[in-house]
Amino acid sequence: MAAERALLEARGLSKYFHGVTALDGVDFDLHAGEIHGLLGENGAGKSTLIKVLTGAYRRDDGRVSLDGAPIDPRDVMDAQSLGIGTVYQEVNLLPNLTVAENLFLGREPKRFGLVDSRAINKRSREILEGYGLSIDVSALLSTYSVAVRQIVAIARAVDISGKVLILDEPTASLDAAEVDRLFAILSDLKARGLGIIFITHFFDQVYRICDRVTVLRNGRLVGSRPLESLKRIELVSMMLGRELESAESGDHGRASEVRGEVVAAFKKVGKKGRIAPFDIEVRRGEVLGIAGLLGSGRTESAELMFGIHEPDTGAIEIDGAKTSLGSPRDAIRKGFGFCPEDRKQDGIIDDLSVRENIALALQARRGWAKPLSRREQDALADRYIEALDIRTSDREKPIKFLSGGNQQKVILARWLATDPRFLILDEPTRGIDVGAHAEIIRLIEELCAEGMALAVISSELEELVAYATRVRILADRQHVAELEGEDVSANGIMRAIAAAEGDNTGEARS
Amino acid sequence: MRILKTLVGAAALAGLMTTTALAADMTVGFSQIGSESGWRAAETTLTKQQAEERGIDLKFADAQQKQENQIKAIRSFIAQGVDAILLAPVVATGWDQVLEEAKEAEIPVVLLDRTIDAPDDLYLTAVTSDLVHEGNVAGQWLADKVGDEQCNVVELQGTTGSSPAIDRKKGFEQAIADHDNIKIVRSQTGDFTRTKGKEVMESFLKAENGGKDICALYAHNDDMAVGAIQAIKEAGLKPGEDILVVSIDAVPDIFQAMANGEANATVELTPNMAGPAFDALEKYKADGTEPPKWIQTESKLYTQADDPMKVYEEKKNLGY
Amino acid sequence: MNASLRSGLLRLAPQIAALAVILALCAAIAPGFFDISFANGRLYGSLIDILNRGAPTALLAIGMTLVIATKGIDLSVGAVMAICGATAAALITSGYGLPATLALTLATGIVCGLWNGALVAFLGIQPIIATLILMVAGRGIAQLITEGVILTFNDQGLIFVGSGILFGVPMPVVLWILIALAVGLAVRFSALGMLIEAVGVNRRAAYLSGVGTAGLLLAVYALSGFCAAIAGTIAAADIRGADANNAGLWLELDAILAVVIGGNSLLGGRFSIVGSLVGAMIIQSINTGILLSGYPPEFNLVIKAVIIVAILVLQSPTSRAFLAFAWRKRSSASQEAAGQQPAPGRQAS
Predict the structure, then answer these.
(1) C195 contacts A363? CB cut-off 8 A
(2) Hey, do A8-96+140-230 and A272-335+421-505 end up sharing a CATH topology, with the first three levels equal?
(3) From C69, which residue of chain A is nearest by alpha-carbon distance?
(4) Which of A46, A170, B126, C26 gives B111 a disulfide partner, CB atoms 3.0 to 4.6 angstroms apart?
């Protein structure tokens, strides 16, 4: 395969947004008659790569060639006419037009200047029959299921472009039978010589349908490997960015002989469609690590623990007393805190100052009638700006002007100001610079040493190993294992994840 | 039961007024626009009163501002075989078909209050007021009142661009055209509302030397005049004396103001459109007398001399 | 405190300048515009008229400012004015005492506001749609109350509350200034201001930080209804009658405009009640100026539109940045240090 010339070839692609590197010198090859998986965690650069290839973004550096000829698509339409078609997760068709109109939108055959709907209906029927789909093409697209719409979208993309087909998480909302049908179609297209790029985070599907896989991480290429010779655990390690080590690292220092008292216990807590019932105990002076791949149910677990969603099964005990958490407000009153994964959407109040962002949770808990005086707020802000080394010109600067790492520290300060007993951190070090990274890890260790209970969700295995007392392994929206003591190691975690992902192959996912 | 009542009523009326003997048997359908304003409500009340006085059996249909409801009502009147139809049309166009049907059924149709764009053989007559004439009557009253004295008038116009605002302004200007001593010094819209009438009058007073330079106020409707009277009082002047107040419509509240000496005159836009309509219908039914195609209602002038409190009491219960 | 006062004034500089220019224009076309005299036990003059006539818009703008700060909007305030005016007139004419009438009228306004707030906070309906419901239905409700007529009343107590004179100052002026002070102090001396801004900037993040977002939303819409109730009472007392068709008609748009002219972003977040009040006075100055000018009424709306477009263009982030640039260039030519420019408006990104 390596001998033949690539259908689509990209070399050294780079893309920057306001000084942030989204794509850093990435190489990518796609052969005709190949289904090529594109994998990576959130923010790895998958969608940026796709958008650069399809002309939605202009690349800042590098070159792309199709069939050996250099191309530089100005926009999506341009890429389409060159032969690169894309189908997105949310199907980019118009539900209030008919199936046939959708297939021919923007390129309708005309007769006497009018759309020849008989012709497009006839052609549409022929095209869709090629996909084993015989439906009424004159009915509105909205009358059909997502799976049918997906096929229509593929048919349209192939009909227009015909060389490269890019599928962005096409199976996310399909059931098992529909996935089978889609894969049959993909195999057929592959046989017809199309090159297909398939983005997903379902391992089993990658192994079922793909010939090769390319893994991105933090905007960089990790590697491109044929799947036949790639073990599941190797793929996990590529995605999580850590080479398998033969020797166990023995620096895991938190022996668990002294166990603090239980702060909160979640017993058979679960919510249908989000996370299967799980048991968790959190103790003082202990960091509970939570590991798993994207979509494994990590954030969903945290949301139940912090009252963002109410569990529909199970019981919560705090200090041994049964209680319920109906909202974050309830949880905060019990002394909980939560740093969300999506800092921009769920964390920072971007127009407000550093001072106000720090004071917010404490003020909310005190209630509006008991304001923190300006002097108290200033003192609070100054204290945490110094303690956490938050780099800001002054405390009145709107938080949106701070770097990601400093924003994260402000959010941490917001919770520390409430003097919490139990702090949940969801990906606390994602997307922040190296210096801040180390400081946050040190902070987690200090807080733990001071007797706080912490739960930390992270894809950074080294990190988890460094500070976690126990590590919970999640896969497929279930808590599948817990590692403790000597087992807490990067290899151990990866093995556990790979094993769990392997076990679940073939199950329908929602 | 109702037949008996109608008969008794008819017999009684027949005894009293021989001219309406024939009308006693008359059944009239009335398709009203709705009840969007006090004046419209008064028109409905008066039409019902007039019918009762004359022993006419009135079938009333409220169209709630929709032409389709009016057309439906007319068709049902035709099906019921009424003797005549009164129509207060909500819009000017689109009536030809249904009026054609009425004509075939030989049922005369009388338009109330508004006219329509249709061949005039499709209806018997239209009873409406004359907006220009109303303004004229108001202007005439002022000219008579001030005689040869110099008089600066401020004018509160209706909603800019509406036909009552245009026509009432025109009529008033015609009436004072020959009187060089009367001059409109300020003219501004008060949107036919009390609030705006008051606010605009305040600015007139400011602009004209605290109101000392204003001799009279002409308002295109009574509501604006009522608001303006408030403003004049608050400026420390006596409305009706320091500043003459003349307006149009003759709604009940202006009579109260007249009784208090705060307003001087109003020109009635009568809600009694049905009276002249019934008169014409009765004559037509009795001996086939064709009325003129346009019956102009009287634009009656009321002044403080007309016992305003008595008129107020009469008008109060008409639903204004 | 002093510094924040100064920075507040600096932020409002364009609005205050615009107001000054408009007042100067008014004085140019209407001699004696700035004269204030004391006659019949009250202050009398065009400036007093502006303060007095601008009262309904100013009151609505107070409530609207907070609603907009939460990234909402309240289209129903004009209709709520009509409902509350009708309620006051209906109660007073059917023999209720003044205290009962006022209490029930204000309660009506608050209930209307709570209805809007509940649609927004609990059902998650977009504010523009949620409040559109009452905007459309409200006048119908008001007409049911007045039975379709202008419901006049002659109760001296109610007339005094809405349009009387207190120590020479018209009651509407007293009312809006008092309520502005009360609300302004309440939001700045409690934590409400900060919490409202947090909800407006990022409702989800505020919720996750434990802010009672639903309660806050209910409260600001209720306050907006309360302000509309007072404005409605003033409008009714002004003409001694409740005009369900016309009371407060389109005033919600004036109130929104006042908030925007006041430099507040429709995207929520940072707000300034003083800014909105200056905005309301700008709008009323334009209205009064047009009336005093004696131009034919056909020009009213055109003149108003031109002036408002000019103000909005001047305070747009782009032209502010340009002005700041030009100013810096000139002052750096003479010396350096342009000093702290007023921060350009928030970028909408």
Answers:
(1) yes
(2) yes
(3) A351
(4) B126
